[in-house]
Design a protein that fits this description.
The chain has about 160 residues and is mainly beta. The chain contains one helix and twelve strands, in the order αββββββββββββ. Strand 9 and strand 10 form a beta hairpin.
């Protein structure tokens, strides 16, 4: 019986774990984000479209708000209808989101500044210390400092004897 238990534990360690479609909730970042703070942006180029109330940043784009940093190849900035505040950021191409010691990579990301919700999609990889988790999508609630991994979640669980 002990040999069977040791074998099963060893098998679980060696195989990636697939979570169900409901998703997995995890902590993200080491602080809650104040979404009312200024959003700082830097890029090689910026194009503003007054007709659509948007701007496009390209080349080494870095967006920062508080302790959170987002980088991407392209970021589209969508302003409110009156043009007084940023409503949403849409990032694409080598997207990286960093908060505290946590970092996530994805193909795309959308940040709703008012709600503080960030949705990363396309080959999402989350790294927290020595733990790595992959998923189809990750939703980050910057106000609560939590995230939810969704769609074919995979990680490796290390079990001590």
């Amino acid at each position: 019986m002990r040999l069977l238990k040791t074998f099963l534990i060893s098998a679980l360690i060696a195989l990636p774990l697939s979570a169900s479609a409901q998703g997995t909730n995890i902590a993200f970042g080491n602080v809650k984000q104040d979404t009312s703070g200024p959003v700082e942006v830097a890029a090689d180029n910026m194009t503003v479209n007054q007709n659509t109330g948007s701007a496009t940043l390209t080349g080494n784009v870095l967006v920062g708000q508080g302790a959170m940093r987002l980088s991407a190849n392209v970021v589209n900035v969508i302003y409110s209808t009156d043009g007084t505040e940023i409503k949403e950021l849409k990032a694409s191409g080598k997207v990286t989101l960093v908060s505290g010691q946590d970092a996530a990579e994805a193909a795309n990301a959308t940040y709703n500044v008012n709600t503080g919700l960030i949705t990363l999609s396309g080959n999402v990889l989350l790294v927290q210390g020595t733990t790595a988790i992959t998923a189809d999508k990750m939703r980050v609630d910057t106000k609560s400092g939590t995230a939810r991994m969704e769609g074919r979640v995979k990680t490796v669980l290390n079990v001590k004897n």
